[in-house]
């Protein structure tokens, strides 16, 4: 943490990101990057739809003779749900839906997936992660005392999806990644790369007990290089080419499918709600809502005043926190006091364990130089 506290005068990112910088107007580097690198190259309008149209036609053409022409990872959250809706109803694609059940789904997420599948008449493949392996890896990250305890779940989603795509000959994977709600990325201090398999293996080696025989694995280089250039798997982000306003999208999904809303980004998972709403802010002083709200400020979906007000309120009620704390402890075969002891332990960072950050930094810099990576990742 920097010795002097400062908050951006344009968004609400602050010095809880220890590497943040500010200009003479008090604007942070996330805001400067948005206006310099993202906004001029982002076209969520008619121009973007015209840019996307040839790719949609290519996906259809390449998919002829197959049951499905693309693959979509569906979590039950708004981003993946909306891209599924657009892919089928607006673009006329024939996606297969892929869901990873890592053992932490909320009932809202399950209901949302079912309603989209039924409402759009799509096929769903669900990969169920071996719970004993998942639990062992999840508990290892707790014992490692790192902020990013969501990594095992995130890696299962990421690796499961792209391993399935490569194995089954899918050339196009549509994702809900977007600038509209994610133009400000969480600093790595808060949320380290879930694709760094070297770190996952090191933490599991130190604190895990059960071999990860079936747990899906794929590091960032396998995904970025082997799957892209050898297997020909291409990632498509349709939400960057169409108007995408989060609240309107959620309402549209609710009206069309009876889709259930949830209060914050990623809260479709009960575990993620605990991780983002309690573990990070309580143990480390990191609030991911700063990045989420700052994205919405920059894309004019929220005012700074609204964000400043929202950030002062707890992510969820004390009673719900207590219930989730007990639920997560029990699910991980811990007592409440054992989980509390972990909460009270010495905080660590990704730097305390083996990692591929040096190589990832080089790759990120190359992508930024080529104009492919526009958001700040550090």
Write structural notes for this entry.
- It is a single chain.
- It contains 16 helices and five strands.
- By secondary structure, it is an alpha/beta fold.
- The chain has one domain: Rossmann fold.
Q: How would you state the average pLDDT, rounded? A: 93
CATH domain class: Alpha Beta
Q: Write out the strand line-up for the largest beta sheet, numbering strands in chain order.
A: 3-2-1-4-5
- Rg over C-alpha atoms, rounded to the nearest angstrom: 20 Å
Number of separate helices? 16
**What amount of the residues lies in strands?**
5-15%
What's the total count of β strands? 5
Class by alpha and beta content: alpha/beta
CATH superfamily: HUPs
Features:
five-stranded parallel beta sheet, alpha/beta, single chain, 50% helix, 378 residues, Rossmann fold
SSE blueprint and pairings:
Blueprint: H1 29-38, H2 46-62, E1 70-73, H3 78-90, E2 95-101, H4 107-120, E3 123-128, H5 131-143, H6 151-167, E4 172-174, H7 179-182, H8 197-207, H9 220-230, E5 234-236, H10 246-257, H11 270-284, H12 289-298, H13 304-310, H14 318-331, H15 336-343, H16 357-369
Parallel strand pairs: 1-2, 1-4, 2-3, 4-5
């Amino acid at each position: 943490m920097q010795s002097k506290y400062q908050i951006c005068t344009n968004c609400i990112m602050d010095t809880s990101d220890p590497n943040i910088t500010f200009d003479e107007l008090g604007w942070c580097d996330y805001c400067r990057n948005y206006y310099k690198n993202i906004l001029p190259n982002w076209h969520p309008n008619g121009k973007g739809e015209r840019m996307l149209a040839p790719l949609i036609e290519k996906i259809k053409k390449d998919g002829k003779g197959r049951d499905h022409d693309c693959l979509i990872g569906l979590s039950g959250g708004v981003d993946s749900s909306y891209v599924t809706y657009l892919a089928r109803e607006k673009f006329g694609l024939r996606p297969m839906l892929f869901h990873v059940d890592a053992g932490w789904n909320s009932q809202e997420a399950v209901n949302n997936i079912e309603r989209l599948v039924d409402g759009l008449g799509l096929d769903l493949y669900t990969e169920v992660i071996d719970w004993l392996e998942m639990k062992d890896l999840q508990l290892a990250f707790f014992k490692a005392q790192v902020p990013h305890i969501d990594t095992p779940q995130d890696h299962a989603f990421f690796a499961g999806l792209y391993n399935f795509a490569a194995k089954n000959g899918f050339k196009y994977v549509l994702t809900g990644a977007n600038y509209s709600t994610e133009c400000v990325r969480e600093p790595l201090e808060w949320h380290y790369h879930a694709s760094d398999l070297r770190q996952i293996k090191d933490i599991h080696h130190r604190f895990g007990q059960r071999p990860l025989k079936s747990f899906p694995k794929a590091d960032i280089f396998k995904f970025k290089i082997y799957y892209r250039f050898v297997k020909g798997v291409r990632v498509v982000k349709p939400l960057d080419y169409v108007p995408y306003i989060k609240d309107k999208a959620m309402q549209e999904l609710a009206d069309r499918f009876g889709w259930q809303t949830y209060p914050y980004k990623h809260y479709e998972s009960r575990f993620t709600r605990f991780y983002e709403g309690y573990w990070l802010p309580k143990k480390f002083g990191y609030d991911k809502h700063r990045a989420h709200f700052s994205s919405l400020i920059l894309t004019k979906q929220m005012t700074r005043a609204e964000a400043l007000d929202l950030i002062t309120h707890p992510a969820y009620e004390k009673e719900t926190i207590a219930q989730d704390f007990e639920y997560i402890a029990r699910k991980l075969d811990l007592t409440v006091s054992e989980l509390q002891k972990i909460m009270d332990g010495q905080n660590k960072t990704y730097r305390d364990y083996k990692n591929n950050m040096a190589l990832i930094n080089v790759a990120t810099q190359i992508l930024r130089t080529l104009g492919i990576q526009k958001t700040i990742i550090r």
